[in-house]
């Protein structure tokens, strides 16, 4: 399966309730980023309960201009969350199922989010 095939898939919790749609993926890269970094690894899925569209880069904490567009996209993506890849129980061509007890993390990217998955502590 290619990562692009995950986009727009409905996402359900372990009880079968729809929690949203995959609107983006989050990758992590280990190793020396300047010299021979490791291959990217799938860190998690960005899931939106209200829209199937992407953030268009406005998930970055410093993306605030143009103000009206930033506000509109943040409103459309209210409730959007990051589900870590280890919280995914099953992926098929028709849906993604999250494991029981999965955690919802903030989808906001910050400059200090340049750690590897093993180093990532409690995304907020």
Polypeptide structure, described:
With 124 residues, the protein is mostly beta strands. It has a single domain (3-98), classed as Roll (SH3 type barrels), CATH 2.30.30. It contains 1 helix and 6 strands. It has one helix at residues 67-76, and strands spanning 10-12, 18-28, 41-48, 81-84, 88-91, 96-98. Strands 4-3-2-1-6-5 form a 6-stranded mixed beta sheet, with no helix packed on it. A hairpin with a 5-residue loop joins strand 1 and strand 2. Mean pLDDT is 82; it is low at 115-124.
CATH superfamily: PRC-barrel domain
Number of strands: 6
Determine the N-to-C terminus distance.
29 Å
Question: What's the average pLDDT?
Answer: 82
Secondary-structure-based class equals mainly beta
Most strands sheet? 6 strands, mixed
C-alpha Rg (nearest Å): 15 Å
The figure for the number of domains is: 1
CATH topology: SH3 type barrels
**CATH top level class name:** Mainly Beta
Helix content: under 10%
Q: What letter string, H or E per element, gives the SSE order?
A: EEEHEEE
Q: Please identify, by name, the CATH architecture.
A: Roll
Write down the overall geometry.
Answer: globular
Number of helices: 1
Strand content: 25-35%
Low-pLDDT stretches are 115-124
Task: Supply the key terms.
124 residues, mainly beta, SH3 type barrels, 1 helix, globular
Short recap of the structure:
8% of the residues lie in helices and 27% in strands.
Detail the topology: elements first, then pairings.
Elements: E1 10-12, E2 18-28, E3 41-48, H1 67-76, E4 81-84, E5 88-91, E6 96-98
Parallel strand pairs: 1-6
Antiparallel strand pairs: 1-2, 2-3, 3-4, 5-6
């Amino acid at each position: 399966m290619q990562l692009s095939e995950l986009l727009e898939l409905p996402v359900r919790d372990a009880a079968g309730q729809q929690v949203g749609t995959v609107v983006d993926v989050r990758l992590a890269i280990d190793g020396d980023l300047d010299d021979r970094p490791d291959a990217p690894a799938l860190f998690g899925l960005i899931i939106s309960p209200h829209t199937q569209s992407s953030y268009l880069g406005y998930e970055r904490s410093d993306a605030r201009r143009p103000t009206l567009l930033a506000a509109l996209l943040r409103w459309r993506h209210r409730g959007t969350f990051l589900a870590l890849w280890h919280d995914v129980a099953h992926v098929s061509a028709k849906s993604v199922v999250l494991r029981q007890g999965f955690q919802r993390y903030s989808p906001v990217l910050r400059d200090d989010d340049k750690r590897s998955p093993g180093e990532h502590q409690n995304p907020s």
